[in-house]
Amino acid sequence: MSAPLVVTRRMTEHPADSHTMERYEATGGYVQARRALDMTRDELVELVKSSGLLGRGGAAFSAGLKWSFLAPARPAYLVVNGDESEPGTFKDRQLLERDPHQMLEGIIITAIANEVHHAFVYIRGEYAKPARRVQTAVDEAYERGYLGTGIFGTDYNLELTVHLGGGAYICGEETALINSLEGRRGEPRLKPPYFPAAKGLYMMPTIVNNVETVSDIPRILEMGADEFSHLAHEADTGTFMMSLSGHVKKPGNFELAHGITWRELIFEVGGGITEDRALKAWIPGGASAPWFVPEHHLDLEITKEATAAAGSMLGSGAVIVMDETTCMVRAAERVVRFFSHESCGQCTPCREGTTWLEMILRRIEDGQGRSVDLDLAIGVSDGISIDLAWPPKMTTICPLGPSAVSPIKALKDYFRDEVDAHVANGGCPF
Amino acid sequence: MSVLSDPVNIKIDGQEFEANAGELLIKAAEDNGTYIPRFCWHNRMKPVGMCRMCLVEVDTGRGPMLVTACTNEVVDGMAVDTGNETVKKAQEAVLEFLLANHPLDCPVCDKGGECPLQDQAMSYGPGESRFVEIKRSYEKPIPISDLVLLDRERCILCARCTRFSEEISGDPLIEFMDRGNTTEINTFPDLPFSSYFSGNTVQICPVGALTAKAYRFRARPWDLRMVESSSNFDTAHPRLAIHVSENEILRLVGVDSEPVNHGWLSDKDRFGFEYVRSENRLTTPLVRRGDTFEPVEWSEALDMVANRLGLILDESGGQAIAVIGGAQGTNEDAYALSKFARTVLGTNNIDSRIDDGLSARFLAATVDRGLISDLDTADTILVWGPDLKETHPTLYLRVRRAAQELGVKLVVVHPRTTGLDDRATKTVRYRPGGGSQLLKEMVGGDHPDLADLLGGNVVAIVGKATLADDDQLPESVAAVVRDLATSARIIPLATKANTYGALDMGVSPDLLPGRVGYRAEAMESTWGGLPEGEGKDSAGILKGLAEETIRSILLVGADPVGDSVAGGVAESLELAEYVVSIDAFMNDSNRLADVIFPATVFSEKEGTTTNLEGRVQKVNAITPPPGLSRPDWVILDDLSSRMGTAMGLSSAEGVAKEIAEVAPAYRDITWDYLEWEARDGVVVPLVGESPLGHVPVRLEGSSAPGAELTLHVARVMYDDGVRLRNCPSLHPLAPGAVVHINPDDARRLGAQEGYEVDVVTSKGEGRFRARMDVGTPAGVVFVPQNQPGAARLGSDAVVRVKVVT
């Protein structure tokens, strides 16, 4: 269960100064970037492909494959997504703040692998301290010639720009992020035709990788693809970070190997439920993910496949635990309100549907609920995500709308009686 | 946009079709008879997939996926389901969502009865709403321009208006604001949506959110009668439909003509119909009695004019009579005028143009004249002439599209910033009067980058950019482009409504109908003799009046006093012994007439017109003429009978048939043909027994004056023309007596925004309000031409500016 640490090793072993250039270089830093300069694009892509590294932003798509899809037009760009805004997720924050050079080295290697000469790090606007640490690290890297013209004394040029977001959740979606980076409204683009690998930033081929994903890259070069791929459960590879929050005794970020069960995560890693109360439900992969309940899901293994088979996802690795004192209507309303607030407003079902769902839940919670309201909410959800299927058959441009439906699905599948109690009681019974 | 390529096979609802690879599914389906509902998608704009109404299930071999038909291109083997349970669920959901916050005020909404939201809610909606919450509310309506109002409650946020502004007209001053459920369309604070094209947003709005002030609450669509026609402002003659209720025009709606206007209209072409029903229309013949006019019977007025003109003819011959006008009406009117001048008056003193400089043969018969659609496929477009956004809105939109969407390079040469500069590959400025100098430098190799850009397949749009340009400059530019380019097309520009039609009909001293020289033998026999000697153009005619060698003048829809750039025209007219006017309005010129015949306009007459590319289109009548007014050709025919040389014109269609017989280029162009076979019109070819086949030649010109300040006078969209003067919604939009000054010059002169200044040239002077304008280069001052309350400054480029306050 205690996985060999990959991305959090330095910050665990050297908590006082893991973010400094001195510590980074004293612990093997920037060696792999120099190595990568002697490797070809094909070698690097193949290495990452065979390491089995999956994107850590939420979609869990093979990072190596993504690189191999990059269209041939140049210039190509690399955008590192540090807009970490999925409620309950705070892993990238730690990586940015505590080991920025590790990410920078990952960026350098990723850039070399993808023939990129200008990379961007997009950090959410609220992350003031992580952004400061990253900027300091970038400045140091420029000073030492690790970034800029002719990096590490070679003829390879790499510029890096740190950009702070304006505080919109949707800008964590890669195409909305690109729009935001270009100075446009933070709205997702249409796929097709705007797949970033073909038409991304400034309509040029673009790799968008999560902070954790690029932070994994130097270690993969260091330990080799094979070792990295065998760090974990046979179905998955490497390690992954989980942000555990809610009603657990030991919340926090944990770097784990895939394959442990939810029971182990919540009761051993997390130390159990606060004040030993009963577990009622948890959100397994950030606010967008359909909810899990102990009766059905506690002994499932935490892997991409097992979670998908059970109708949810590991997403950004945020686990939010709710105990028996939690009002499910109120919890659902809070999550739906978040999505309704963060909807970009571009497409009809999300703009109108999420707000409507919020109004219905608010009414039920406030004691104005009608017996038909849960079914109405399910009906409205049906219009955003047809039949509430998994994976969603969405009527929207991006997955934000269907994300707002996850709590409704939980109410429908597991907590209908709680909704009825609200209606019968004329308000919240909790 | 994808380039269409090989045909692919797709299956829609079980039926196999062939479609073009790269075509959007929604279009391919529609072309094959399957209508997929939509709000945001518009054939002439890029897809955005926002409304989600066109969701269909598509299987490309990886299982059925719910996708928007407006954003997905067809691929071979694609199977599409447009109406299964999943699709229906999605359609009903989208409509329920759209209607959730819609006010449903259809009974008082202009769009009611022609509303895509209404129609599609009936066809694809769930029937009833489950929405019991309180709807969004906004202050309404709010003005977004001088002519258009916005109701944000009705808006379904489809981005058609914002895309139009950004992609088509290039005035991106209307945008989405806020986000999520509070997303709204609005203009930028402190920046009104000032666009010459705002009316198009009303036409493409799929709900009643954008409404035109002129049409609001005035009619229901089912009460309207309509007919197709062309605009008579823009010389491109954009196609439009005239919508009429109770014999009054209520609105004009753009018609999508592929070769001309793609459905778009400028606000002048769209809202400039108020003059038709103006109180100021002339409704009866008027005869001067001392200082006033007295209404008389038609027969009395016609007899008077016939007798008097006959007398002058007997005494002095045709050389003593002249005709100015004929560009405002139809080709049939122009033909009658041309024939009247030659066969009845026996004169070649006839001109349809006043002060626009270019030679008639260059305008009407350039051998390599370009089409509007040639702009789409050029390597480079050269615009060396007026600011198209101000004077030729249809061309402006087409050039903009070519440069912005089709990858065509654009070169703009003009004395100041133009509406196309933001899309130009290269812009070149020159001081007014220095155009010929610049061209000389270009030929001399001083501008190699320009010469490079003009090396390929070039369309050159040429005209006078500024009054101070040499008259021959546009033709010289065309000649140079022909030398540089591997393939050159020339679009020479005139500004007035049916100028090209009038020239084609011979309303010009050196042309006869069908673009033949005035010595053509064929015409001589057809018309039974032609007048001897060269005719005079407008300038020559006015000079003749001043010198009293011309005794009488006939003005047909012409106002030389108002249209002339210099003063002194009224004095010349006063010297004329006998002035006759055929016009719809009293204007600055026919105030001095002896007899005025009331004429019909625009929607009151049927006929044909010819646009700037030589395209003949049919225009149609739908409103009755006011009072006793008559078409020009009827008046002229009546006069001819009374003067003993009957032209024998019996109907407008009869005139059209005579044109088709007489004018070689117009052979076979009959009304029936235009009505039934050639809906987009016919481009008249350069053929005939003696085609002019004019080849532009390069002529030397003068160089820029060495003055400290040079004057740039040019037309803008709204001016003091008599038709606009009688359009109450548009006339106030004219900038008035203003002078644009570069802030650096202004600082030197001590002027600030809004200051009164005196502008003085050798030809005139007047008081103007100063406007600070970085678009006008230092050393140049810009004065919009023919503005209400503005003095005429003439074409002299040397100017002085003195601050008054």
Question: How would you describe what is shown here?
Answer:
The complex is a heterodimer of chains A (430) and B (805). By secondary structure, chain A is α/β, with parallel strands linked by helices. Chain A has 21 helices and eight strands. Chain A has a four-stranded parallel sheet with strand order 3-2-1-4, with helices on both faces. In chain A, strands 6-5-8-7 form a four-stranded mixed sheet, with no helix packed on it. In chain A, a hairpin with a 5-residue loop joins strand 5 and strand 6. In chain A, helix 4 crosses helix 7 and helix 20 packs across helix 21. The relative contact order of chain A is 0.12. Chain B has 805 residues and is an alpha/beta fold. In chain B, the strands form nine sheets. In chain B, strands 15-14-27-26-25-16-17 form a seven-stranded mixed sheet, with helices on both faces. Chain B has a six-stranded mixed sheet with strand order 31-35-32-34-33-36. Chains A and B meet through helix 16, helix 17 and helix 18 of A and helix 2 of B.
Notable features of this structure?
heterodimer; A: alpha/beta; 21 helices; globular; B: 805 residues; 6-stranded mixed sheet; 25 helices; 36 strands; 20% strand
- Compute the separation of the termini of chain A in Å: 37 Å
Which chain pair has the greatest contact?
Answer: A-B, 37 and 36 residues
SS content category of chain B: alpha/beta
**Morphology call of chain B:** globular
Rg over alpha carbons of chain B: 28 Å
Q: How far do the termini of chain B sit from each other?
A: 54 Å
Count, helices of chain A: 21
Strand order of the largest sheet of chain A: 3-2-1-4
Mind summarizing the main beta sheet of chain B? 7 strands, mixed
List low-confidence stretches of chain B: none
| Spans where pLDDT lies below 50 across 5 or more residues of chain A | none
* Rounded Rg of chain A: 22 Å
Mean pLDDT level of chain B: 93
- Overall number of strands of chain A: 8
Helix content of chain B: 25-40%
Structural class of chain A: alpha/beta
Name the quaternary structure. heterodimer
Q: Can you summarize the main beta sheet of chain A?
A: 4 strands, parallel
* Arithmetic mean of pLDDT of chain A: 95
Please estimate the helix content of chain A: 40-55%
